[in-house]
Amino acid sequence: MPAKKYKYAYRKTITLADGKRHDICANTKEEFEEKLLEVQLLTKQGIVPTDMTFGEFAKIWFKTYKDGANLRLNSKASIKNTVNNHILPYIGELRIDSVKPLHIQRIMNEANKLSNSTSSKVLAAMRSIFNAAVDNNLIAKSPVGITLKAGGTPTPKKSTLDKEECERVLAEVKNPRAHIFALIGLRTGMRRGEIVALHWADVDFEHHIIHVCHNAVMPDGQPTIITDDLKTTAGERDIGMPADLEAELLEWRKHSSGKLVVSLHNGKPLTKSAFRSLWRIIARAVPNKHFTPHTMRHTYITQLVESGVDLSLVQ
C-alpha cells in the first residue's frame, strides 16, 4: 500500500502484531522510510510501538518496583522526589520510546550542577526505569549509556563541633523551638527524623531516659508521616538525659499542648519546609562550617568515643 499524503508529506497506517493500528508520519521520504524500517525492526524483536509517555511509565515503575518493595518510607520519598523534581520536568511528556541519549545527557548536565549524591540518585533512577522498560518490551535499548557516570559537587567531609561551638549554638539560638531541637541533637545524638517524631510519651522523666522508637518521613510539599520504621535495626534504643536537657524539656513541656516535643504551632509534625526554616536559624550560629543536622549526631558520637565508650556500642 503506497504512502498517503495528509497533513504530513508521508503517512502510512500499519497493523501491528497485537492487532492495533499504528500511524507512521514524516515530512520527507527519507525520514518516512527510516521510521518505517525502525517499526519493522522493533516488531521483529517483539517490541510494539507505544504512545505511553515516560511520565506514565515512571508512575507504573514506581508503584510496581518501589512502592510495592520492602523499602523504608524515607527511601521511597527520596526516590519519588528525585523523579518528580529532576527527571519528569525534562522528559515526562515524551513518549518513552522517543527518549534519546541526548535527553539523558541534558538531564545529567543539570543534575551535575548539584551534589554528587543528587546526581547519583538521578542516574540510578533513570537507569532503573529504562531497564524496566526494556524488560517489558517497551523499548529495545536503554538510552542511559552504561559508561555514563554521576558528577556533581562531592559531599563535604563529615565535620564535628568542638565544645566552644556547641555552647555557642545553644547560647545564640534564641528561638525556643529551634533551641530545644539543637539541645536534643547535641545532647543525645538523635537523628533529624527521630527528633521531629519524638513524643512526650517517649520522654521518661522518672528514669531520666528518652526512648527512641519513632521516625519522621518529610516528603516535599506533603504532610510529614510519623512511623516506627527506624533507619536501622538497632535504631530503637534508650538514651540517658543529661541534667541540662531534662531541665529544659521540663520547662518546654509547660508551653507544649501537643503530643510531639517539637512540632508546628497546631501540634502537627514539622513539614520539610518548616524544618528547613528552623534549621537555618540553628545553622547561623556556626556560619563558617558545613553544619547539618547530622553534624550534631557525629559530634555526639565523637564525644562518646573520646570519653572511652566502645564505638561498637554507639548506635
Q: Would you mind describing this structure in some detail?
A:
- The protein is mainly alpha-helical and 315 residues long.
- It has three domains: 10-44; 54-135, DNA polymerase, domain 1, CATH 1.10.150.130; 163-313, Orthogonal Bundle (hpI Integrase, Chain A).
- Helix content is 46%, strand content 9%.
- The protein has helices at residues 29-44, 54-67, 73-86, 88-91, 101-111, 116-135, 163-172, 176-188, 192-196, 243-253, 272-283, 293-306, and strands at 10-15, 21-26, 203-204, 209-212, 215-217, 225-227, 237-240.
- Strands 3-4-7 form a three-stranded antiparallel sheet, with no helix packed on it. A two-stranded antiparallel ribbon has the order 1-2.
- The longest helix is centred in the middle third of the chain and has 20 residues, at 116-135.
- The model has no long low-confidence stretch (mean pLDDT 87).
